[in-house]
TrEMBL record:
Residues 209-226 have a biased composition (Basic and acidic residues). Coiled coil: none annotated. Residues 40-59 bind DNA. Residues 17-77 form the HTH tetR-type domain. Keywords: DNA-binding. Residues 235-244 have a biased composition (Low complexity). The keyword Transmembrane helix does not apply. This is TetR/AcrR family transcriptional regulator. Residues 206-244 are annotated as: Disordered. It comes from Enterovirga aerilata. One of its GO terms (molecular function) is DNA binding. The keyword Nucleotide-binding does not apply. It comes from the Bacteria.
């Protein structure tokens, strides 16, 4: 019988990297399920399939891991979004691709929002680093679009405001239309369409010329105003004739 091929040896550096990744992933999963408070070193190593003492070869403490965790997962999110928006035709195509990619990431990482929300108190430095990273990349993308002439109505300093508006929208849309027990569900297409309508046309919800044409037809405002003007003119004339 032919001899079985020996398993390739794993280098020490590869093993170190794999163990560190396993600990980070185990911690992220546990926080998503239980929260930071109940994610102990023992539970992390058990989930990762490593000895308890192995943890301290990579992190000084549980808090040390917590302080690295959210920015690390956040970088995974940014990498996925960069891949999704690659080749976008314009700023609107880029925004829709990024929006859909964000919710796909939530489906793949069901504990992400608990990891994010509880970090504000459990790992505040990590929370701030993540928000800063996300905003910086968003603003950079908007700056590139503006440089191509795609955001003519915005000043350079307003792009950060725009970035935070769009980032905040994702959170509340998740809470209402994507959050399910234990994670996130796919975002409905009609929700994406409504979001893109707002991004494209603002609060008007339609191109300016369409809004101007449809508004008087919808409520009769212009006709009522014209009627009031005619009545006012008639009263003024009658008053003038009486005084004479």
């Amino acid at each position: 019988m032919p001899k079985s091929r020996a398993e390739p040896k794993v280098s020490r550096s590869d093993r170190v990297k794999a163990n560190r990744v396993a600990l980070m992933r185990a911690a992220a999963d546990l926080i998503g399920e239980r929260g930071y408070e109940e994610t102990s070193v023992g539970r992390i190593t058990e989930r990762a399939g490593l000895a308890h003492g192995t943890f301290y070869r990579y992190f000084e403490s549980r808090q040390d891991l917590f302080d690295e965790l959210l920015p690390t997962v956040g970088n995974e999110l940014l990498q996925q979004l960069r891949a999704r928006v690659s080749g976008a035709r314009d700023v609107l195509d880029l925004e829709e691709r990024g929006f859909r990619g964000f919710f796909d990431f939530l489906v793949e990482h069901p504990g992400f929002y608990r990891l994010l929300n509880e970090a504000e108190t459990a790992a505040p430095a990590a929370f701030q680093e993540h928000i800063d990273n996300l905003a910086r990349h968003y603003v950079s993308a908007l700056e590139r679009s503006r440089a191509r002439g795609e955001l003519p109505g915005f000043e350079a300093r307003e792009l950060e405001v725009l970035a935070f508006i769009l980032m905040a929208a994702r959170f509340y849309i998740y809470l209402r239309f994507s959050k399910v027990e234990g994670g996130a569900g796919p975002i409905p297409d009609w929700v994406v369409a409504a979001y893109m309508k707002f991004v494209t046309f603002g609060l008007a919800g339609a191109p300016p010329e369409r809004t101007r044409k449809s508004a008087p037809e919808a409520d009769g405002t212009s006709e009522r105003a014209a009627t009031r003007r005619r009545r006012s003119t008639s009263r003024s004339r009658a008053s003038g004739e009486t005084q004479q």
